[in-house]
Amino acid sequence: MEIADSVLDLIGNTPLVRLRQVGADIECPVVVKYEVFNPGGSSKDRPALFMVNAAEKEGLLKPGGTIIEPTSGNTGVGLAIVAAQRGYKTKFVVTDKVGKEKVDLLRAYGSEVVVCPVAVAPEDPSSYYSTAERLVKETPNAFRPNQYANQFNPQSHYETTGPEIWRQTDGTVTHFVAGAGTGGTISGAGRYLKEQNPDIKVIAGDPDQSLYSGGSGRPYLVEGVGEDFWPTTYDPSVVDQVIPVTDQQSFLTARMVSEQEGLLIGGSCGTAVYAALEVAKGLTKDDLVVVLTPDSGRGYLSTVFDDEWMAGFGFLRAEGAVVADVLAAKEGDIPPLVYARPTDSVREVVNLMHSHDVSQLPVAKNEMPLAAAEVMGSIDELRIMESAFGETSVLDRSVEEVMSPRLPTIGIGEPVEMAVHLLDLAPAILVLDGGRPRTVLARADVLSFLSLDTANA
User: Fold this and answer.
1) N or C: which end of the chain has fewer CB atoms below 10 A?
2) 274, 299, 324: which is the final residue of a domain?
């Protein structure tokens, strides 16, 4: 009888499938290592099983224990599946950029989920790394697998993913492409493949602001890939090339593959596939690119596959006149976003507004480029004047003490009609382009555009 003894026996041996539509104009074949076929729906089932097995063997995880881990969702699901079979409790820490579907999925497996802000440094007490460490200390009989340092993470891919790809391609694979989050997949599978054939090229598809791509580690919206620190599970000696990929390229590629190939893949899969297609463009029919897609698009239905969410962040463009047209009509190039920092004094910000001839500014921490989540509030010249009239000491207070709520946001490809509606409710709106704040749009900007548009009609 073909009956698996447990769900854990279903981990691995995922199929390869050729991209026939999106790679139709590329001579080199591109095939996907489709990790959705793991029982937890992602490649993270592999290291989850290996890390728990090793912890049990080493006595780090005892009966009735609690597994605690910071995760973007997929590792948590893999650990929850193993925990269900072994009788452990699970507690996971995620950032607030993780989709609701993933949080709900972790809870469906009986896990406790703690959500932390994404727009903080790793060492910040409220970061998901710090929160996980605190929970481990507070929880009796707790074990943290620490996928970012646990060498059984890359080892799982060295022993399973790499050999599967080699066997499934009959040793003809010439290029292996994957994302680099913890670095486990690309380091483990890549090392195995290079041991079989040193000429195989290993390429990372990576968010353009990730450390792997030479960025600062922020900001980007794609989940589960890229890092803001160097995990010890990442082996740079295995990786031949890192291809930076924007959020927009990642999300639109994920949607394209899902629509044209019938393979529902997530945002980080889009990152890897975009990089794979870029690699394949310079190759021949005698080469073979294998790209690992780590998970399903089902965890991104409220984000990547939601038109309203995509448009709101500036990833999609509507028909007719849109915000981008208003910006294009402004004289000269759009200047870099001017914003106040929460620690600036109100007096400094008043001078900043006067020097740029603006009457309101967003308030944000960190340097450019900014993430939308890093915008904390706004400051308005009229409100400052009203406050300072009764109490001039207001001018020497910090912006954080007196700032107003955040400006409404609008995607750069959204209709001008929507901008008019938002500007009826607020004096200015913050324009998002490719997921990042680009500029502030005032009523005068839209009125000038409408006047010009009417004159040309």
Assistant:
1) N
2) 299
